[in-house]
Amino acid sequence: MNEPTSTDAHQYKTVLGHFCTGVTVVTALDGDEPVGFTCQAFSALSLRPPQVLLCPQKTSTTWPRIRRSGRLAINMLGAGQREIGRRFARTGVDRFAGVGWRPSPAGLPLIDGALAWLECRVVEEIDAGDHMIAVASVGELGVGQAEHPLLFFRGEFVGYEVKEAVSA
Hints:
Layout: H1 6-16, E1 21-22, E2 24-30, E3 33-39, E4 42-46, E5 51-54, H2 63-69, E6 71-76, H3 82-89, E7 101-103, E8 109-111, E9 116-128, E10 131-143, E11 150-153, E12 156-159
Antiparallel strand pairs: 1-11, 2-3, 2-6, 4-5, 5-10, 6-9, 7-8, 9-10, 11-12
């Protein structure tokens, strides 16, 4: 398969931007310091055993710190957490400044007000283009306080509100 040209890469991003994803913040402890980054490339992978995958960029300076710890938390953001999604996507800032969090059962940072959370252990990494695919086994998990998800669509964080029930 050929590498996309710059025009193809732009079209690729535009087209895939039409696929709505949830927004997560992946967190861990590097020593005693909480670290984390925004990640839309996240998915359930397996029920037996319970596993998820996430795809950090190879240029991430946070991912090596999380990988080194071997454990991470996935914080699924709620509709009212746009600023947290933006903050954890930035570089050169204290991402946890002003962000409330509590320790998970294993001591990992869980962001206050999140939709749901998972505690995970990294079990495999696969090289994949300009990203890594990290497979993680799920340990503890729970539902948070938010009722609706924060979504990423066409390059923007958007809140989702249920307008009406759909019946089958």
